[in-house]
């Protein structure tokens, strides 16, 4: 076989921690050793995750077939590439997690019919396939971009976004018209252990996130972008820094990269500004005024998550793909938490159940996840402080999720009846303990309410179920807390009371319907 008639082979190595570079380097050494002028060329590329946590991942593509091996070590990566050296048309399929046939020259990771195939890959298009630092200047900028985002009704995404679940355009206009020089902050600190969307985008599609920030800056006449990344994530920092350098070279913008400690409270959109300003105590700011008029060092500031900015980039790149009449145009990233943890992308008019594999975790892919006696499967939807539900037929749009009492921070954590932790009382109690321990302490409803609510939930096991008092605490936290931490922290408690009150009463009587808690 000669080079002329041989199919080129591309080896993509996906990793998200420094140790993953060893697999890439091993693959490259093997490719160099296998290089033969008369044989098929072998190209190696460093990429981010396509949506799975089983990294490092090696995807070998030749022609119309891709073979995927996940959780590989450097020796395995080298062996896979070495098998390509003989010019054989066969790919290394032994031990592969997936073998996908596709059209030649795909532009996105070939997910086949596996778990990553759920929904649609629009924002995630290219994740795990293209250079994470690839940057393309947006087609629409300035006032035209603001008009486009306004007409399309694009909403903010994620707990750390100043416009979470709200249309972006109003905040952009406020920042543009405020006194002072606007600045755009990319808030990459979302430390919600249940949602991977922001970290996935920064690690796999940093160029797309930065392009969205360029759009926001141009629409508000900002000249500065500050990208905040977790200080314990050097791979993300390297990739964002590379994109920042490109943007600095190709535009008039100044891009600064800042590393900061990532925890749930610090990711709140005003707390991240406190961190950037170097304040000793990180806590939420009182509002109004909001950051759009009084933000970083008193400048008008847009604070957006990577999920929001990637959605902005997609909106201006292909506005015809969005339905401007939809309640929440576009798509939402959803992390399915469990043994096969993954992040998929759903159209906002599609059911949450589409993110699940049929029968997964003891539930159904559509409809209700469990029975009506409190003993069936259920899920926590919306991140660490998501809502508890048996019904996953809710659309993925922000208005629908909030209307159902669920969270919008992009995750589904299913619990099977009888499984470890598969009791709604346990799930609500653990989340209230997080609220008690991790709040910033600035406002009484959150600081004191979370302590008292956690204590009352513990008293259920002692035979005391103060239902009316718990409901009052949930309402108080939701409606009077200073920031979204307290508002969201009330959600697991409120939904447990609404849908699983029978379980709480049963526990007070010394019985766990799920069979999880000790009698």
Automatic annotation (TrEMBL):
- Where the record annotates domain NADH-ubiquinone oxidoreductase 51kDa subunit iron-sulphur binding, the positions are 425-470
**SUPFAM superfamilies this protein is in?**
Nqo1 FMN-binding domain-like (SSF142019), Nqo1C-terminal domain-like (SSF140490)
The UniProt keyword set, sorted, is: 4Fe-4S, Iron, Iron-sulfur, Metal-binding
Cross-referenced Gene3D superfamilies: NADH-ubiquinone oxidoreductase 51kDa subunit, NADH-ubiquinone oxidoreductase 51kDa subunit, iron-sulphur binding domain
Q: Name one GO molecular function term.
A: 4 iron, 4 sulfur cluster binding
Family annotation (InterPro entries): Nuo51_FMN-bd, Nuo51_FMN-bd_sf, Nuop51_4Fe4S-bd, Nuop51_4Fe4S-bd_sf
Pfam families (alphabetical): Complex1_51K (PF01512), NADH_4Fe-4S (PF10589)
**Similarity section:** Belongs to the complex I 51 kDa subunit family.
**PANTHER family in the record, alphabetically?**
NADH-QUINONE OXIDOREDUCTASE SUBUNIT F
Protein's name in the database: NADH dehydrogenase FAD-containing subunit
Species this protein is from: Halobaculum magnesiiphilum
């Amino acid at each position: 076989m000669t080079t002329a008639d041989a199919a080129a082979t591309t080896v993509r190595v996906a990793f998200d921690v420094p140790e993953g570079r060893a697999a890439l380097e091993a693959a490259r050494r093997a490719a160099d050793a296998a290089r033969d002028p008369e044989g098929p060329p072998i190209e190696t590329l460093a990429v981010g995750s396509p949506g799975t946590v089983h990294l490092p991942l090696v995807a070998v593509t030749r022609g119309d077939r891709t073979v995927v091996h996940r959780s590989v070590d450097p020796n395995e990566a080298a062996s896979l590439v070495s098998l390509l050296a003989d010019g054989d048309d066969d790919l290394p399929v032994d031990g592969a997690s997936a073998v996908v046939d596709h059209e030649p020259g795909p532009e996105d990771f070939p997910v086949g019919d596996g778990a990553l195939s759920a929904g649609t890959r629009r924002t995630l298009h290219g994740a795990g396939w293209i250079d994470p630092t690839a940057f393309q200047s947006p087609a629409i900028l300035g006032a035209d971009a603001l008009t486009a985002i306004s007409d399309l009704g694009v909403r903010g995404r994620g707990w750390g976004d100043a416009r979470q679940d709200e249309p972006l355009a109003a905040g952009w206009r406020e920042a543009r018209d405020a006194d002072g020089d606007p600045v755009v902050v990319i808030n990459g600190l979302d430390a919600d252990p249940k949602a991977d969307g922001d970290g996935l985008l920064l690690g796999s599609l940093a160029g797309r996130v930065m392009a969205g920030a360029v759009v926001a800056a141009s629409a508000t006449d900002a000249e500065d972008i500050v990208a905040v990344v977790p200080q314990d994530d050097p791979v993300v920092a390297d990739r964002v820094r590379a994109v920042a350098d490109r943007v600095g070279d190709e535009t008039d913008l100044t891009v600064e990269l800042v590393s900061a400690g990532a925890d749930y409270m610090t990711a709140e959109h005003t707390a991240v500004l406190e961190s950037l300003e170097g304040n000793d105590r990180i806590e939420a700011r009182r509002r109004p005024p909001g950051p759009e008029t009084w933000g970083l060092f008193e400048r008008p500031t847009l604070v957006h998550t990577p999920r929001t900015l990637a959605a902005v980039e997609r909106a201006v790149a292909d506005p015809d793909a969005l339905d401007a009449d939809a309640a929440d145009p576009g798509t939402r990233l959803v992390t399915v938490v469990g043994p096969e943890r993954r992040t998929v992308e759903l159209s906002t008019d599609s059911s949450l159940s589409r993110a699940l594999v049929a029968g997964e975790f003891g539930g159904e892919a559509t409809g209700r996840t469990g029975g009506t006696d409190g003993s069936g499967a259920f899920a926590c939807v919306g991140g660490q402080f998501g809502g508890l539900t048996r019904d996953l037929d809710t659309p993925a749009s922000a208005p629908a999720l909030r209307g159902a009492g669920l969270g919008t921070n992009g995750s589904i954590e299913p619990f099977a009846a009888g499984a470890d932790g598969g009791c709604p009382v346990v799930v609500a109690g653990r989340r209230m303990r997080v609220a008690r321990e991790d709040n910033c302490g600035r406002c009484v409803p959150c600081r004191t309410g979370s302590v008292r609510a956690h204590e009352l939930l513990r008293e259920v096991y002692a035979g005391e179920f103060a239902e009316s008092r718990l409901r009052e605490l949930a309402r108080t936290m939701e409606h009077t807390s200073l920031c979204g931490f307290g508002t969201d922290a009330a959600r697991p408690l409120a939904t447990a009371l609404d849908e699983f009150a029978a379980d709480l009463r049963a526990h007070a009587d010394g019985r766990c319907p799920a069979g999880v808690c000790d009698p």
